[in-house]
Amino acid sequence: MIEPGELKIHQASHARYFEDFLKFVDYGESMPEIMKAQVMNMVQEHVHETFADNSEELQQFEQAMEVWEASEKREIQERLDTHQVIEATAQIVEHTPDAKRRMTIGNTSVKGLLSDFGENVHLGKINRRYVLLVDAESIVFEKGVSSIEFYKPDDVMAILERIRQKE
Q1: Rounded distance, CA 115 to CA 95, Å?
Q2: Looking at residue 11, what is its pLDDT?
Q3: Which of 24, 51, 127, 160 could form a disulfide with 58 if both were Cys (CB 3.0 to 4.6 A apart)?
Q4: Domain, as residue range, for 72
């Protein structure tokens, strides 16, 4: 079936036929499995370029990857540069243009399209603290009222300087 639908079988003989037939139906990998495989392939390429075979660093990295892979909530690993991440993201977006990504920075949750990373969503560090920059032409607020809706934004350089002075 190409389109989702509902199938009701009222005759036992027909139901038996479908039970026999469904054994041969093969389901492809789910989207999270495909995304995970692509990311893991990119990381493996990076590892083989960076570490010598059978080195202690390689073994430590592989152990860290096993822990990372099994974790429900994962922290940033700081292993790949911007270009490598954008390249890996492009491969995923090629399969699923509307792939979404959710992350939490401090106490703030951010969700958006995976394809926006490097284009409209940027991650950086200032004084060992993470900074997320999101550029857009507009900001829309959902129901409810807050004073932020009336905010006249500061210049980004002034904000970065305030963050730089934090310690």
Answers
A1: 11
A2: 65
A3: 51
A4: 9-96
Whether residues 134 and 167 share a domain: the answer is yes
CA dihedral sign of residues 103, 106, 109, 112: negative
| Tokens coding 74 | 């994962």
Cβ neighbors of 43 (< 8 A, separation 6 or more) are: 65, 79, 80
Helices 31-50 & 82-95 angle (0-180, nearest 10): 150
Q: Same domain for 143 and 103?
A: yes
| Residues β-bridged to residue 117 | 121
Cβ proximity of 160 and 153 under 8 Å: no
pLDDT-derived band at 15 (thresholds 50, 70, 90) equals low
Over the stretch 43-76, which tens digit does the pLDDT of each residue have? 777 777 777 788 888 888 888 888 888 888 888 8
Mean per-residue pLDDT of the chain: 83
CA atoms of 78 and 61, how far apart (whole Å) = 12
Residue 24 clears pLDDT 70, i.e. is over it: yes
Strand partners, 122: 133
Instruction: Tell me, yes or no, whether 54 and 84 share the same domain.
Output: yes
Cα distance between residue 20 and residue 57, in whole Å: 51
Q: Is 121 helix (H, G, I), strand (E, B) or coil?
A: strand
